[in-house]
């Protein structure tokens, strides 16, 4: 994953914010660690392996509220921050309060005044997340009228956010990217194995994560539903499908040669292939024969070859 950080304003007059910003710049230069935390937190809330859920609107209101708490906990675990004396964390010697809001309207209690805010927002539909730092001050904050006197950043406060990453990508949730009728087709079979088979038939040339497979299979041994000897790999090979894994260099090389999406570690990509008589674009030699990627709507009666690592 490559996600470039937002340019940092070296003219900042807040040395504490600068120190924390630079700490993150060193700890997570491309945002890969944070992106993983946001993806895993969505999946943790959906609990798809047990519930079959994969969308934000399938969650209860209390679960949606809990996302912010889980982000705070999961960032803490990932980066092993020191506990704060007053706020959530202590980073580079400074107290930092962790806030999340799906609308970027972070609620700031009176006790946060004077301290740094690590504020974030994320969208599973857009496969994007943002996180930034700002100092909570009286002039940056709207004063709340509720009993706990919480307020949100005003226009001045929002303009002072130093974004570590803005609209950065995270691993996509392909069940949100597929048309509803195709998702319904995937979930229609009663058996977990049949659903996983249908997933790899429908979601071709897409990055399929283990959490998606767990959600579709809804079984403890969900990865067994992909493997050889009765899993999707052996069943769908007869229909011309290759299931390529991002944990194997040989398989990612095949994906590149076929011109399809290249899976990252922990991901799989399904691609349908057919034999060809000569080298052409998006073709690769496997088992002594040439194969090319077949788009949806084109038929192939040939069984797909085995790929090293399968």
Summarize the structure.
The chain has 310 residues and is α+β, with helices and mostly antiparallel strands. Helices cover 33% and strands 21% of the residues. Helix 2 (32-46) packs antiparallel against helix 4 and helix 7 packs antiparallel against helix 8 (192-202).
> What top-tier CATH class of the largest domain fits best?
Alpha Beta
Helix content: 25-40%
CATH architecture of the largest domain: 3-Layer(aba) Sandwich
**How far is the N terminus from the C terminus?**
24 Å
CATH topology group of the largest domain: ECO RV Endonuclease, Chain A
Could you state the oligomeric state of the chains shown?
single chain
- Assigned CATH superfamily of the largest domain: DNA mismatch repair MutH/Restriction endonuclease, type II
Query: Number of helical runs?
Result: 11
Q: Major sheet: size, sense and barrel closure?
A: 6 strands, mixed
Structural class: alpha+beta
Shape: elongated
Kindly report the spatial arrangement of strands forming the biggest sheet: 1-2-3-5-6-8
> Which radius of gyration do the C-alpha atoms yield?
23 Å
For the record, the count of structural domains works out to 2
Indicate the mean pLDDT. Answer: 90
* Proportion of residues in β-strands: 15-25%
Question: Your description of this structure?
Answer:
It is a single chain. This protein has 310 residues and is α+β, with helices and mostly antiparallel strands. It is 33% helix and 21% strand. The chain is built from 11 helices and 13 strands. It has helices spanning 15-27, 32-46, 48-51, 61-79, 155-159, 174-177, 180-187, 192-202, 210-217, 232-237, 249-258; strands at 82-83, 89-91, 94-100, 107-108, 116-123, 128-135, 151-152, 162-169, 208-209, 241-245, 267-276, 283-286, 289-293. β5 (116-123) and β6 (128-135) form a beta hairpin. α2 (32-46) packs antiparallel against α4 (61-79) and α7 (180-187) runs antiparallel to α8 (192-202).
């Amino acid at each position: 994953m490559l996600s470039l950080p937002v340019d940092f304003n070296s003219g900042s007059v807040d040395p504490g914010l600068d120190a924390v910003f630079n700490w993150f710049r060193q700890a997570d230069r491309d945002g890969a660690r944070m992106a993983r935390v946001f993806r895993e937190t969505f999946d943790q809330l959906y609990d798809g392996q047990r519930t079959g859920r994969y969308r934000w609107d399938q969650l209860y209101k209390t679960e949606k509220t809990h996302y912010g708490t889980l982000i705070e906990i999961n960032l803490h675990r990932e980066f092993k921050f020191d506990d704060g004396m007053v706020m959530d964390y202590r980073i580079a010697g400074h107290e930092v309060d962790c806030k999340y809001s799906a609308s970027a309207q972070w609620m700031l209690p009176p006790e946060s005044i004077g301290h740094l805010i690590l504020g974030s927002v994320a969208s599973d539909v857009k496969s994007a997340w943002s996180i930034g730092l700002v100092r909570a001050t009286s002039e940056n904050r709207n004063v709340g009228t509720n009993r706990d006197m919480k307020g949100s950043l005003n226009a001045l406060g929002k303009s002072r956010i130093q974004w570590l990453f803005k609209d950065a990508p995270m691993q996509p949730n392909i069940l949100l990217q597929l048309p509803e009728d195709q998702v319904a087709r995937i979930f229609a079979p009663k058996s977990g194995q049949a659903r996983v088979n249908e997933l790899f038939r429908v979601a071709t040339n897409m990055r399929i994560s283990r959490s998606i497979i767990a959600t579709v299979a809804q079984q403890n041994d969900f990865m067994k539903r992909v493997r050889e000897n009765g899993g999707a790999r052996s069943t769908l090979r007869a229909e011309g499908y290759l299931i390529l894994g991002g944990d194997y260099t040989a398989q990612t090389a095949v994906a590149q040669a076929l011109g399809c999406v290249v899976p990252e570690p922990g991901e799989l990509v399904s691609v349908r292939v057919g034999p060809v008589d000569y080298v052409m674009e998006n073709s690769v030699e496997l088992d002594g024969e040439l194969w090319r990627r077949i788009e949806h709507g084109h038929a192939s009666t040939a069984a797909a070859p085995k790929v090293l690592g399968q």
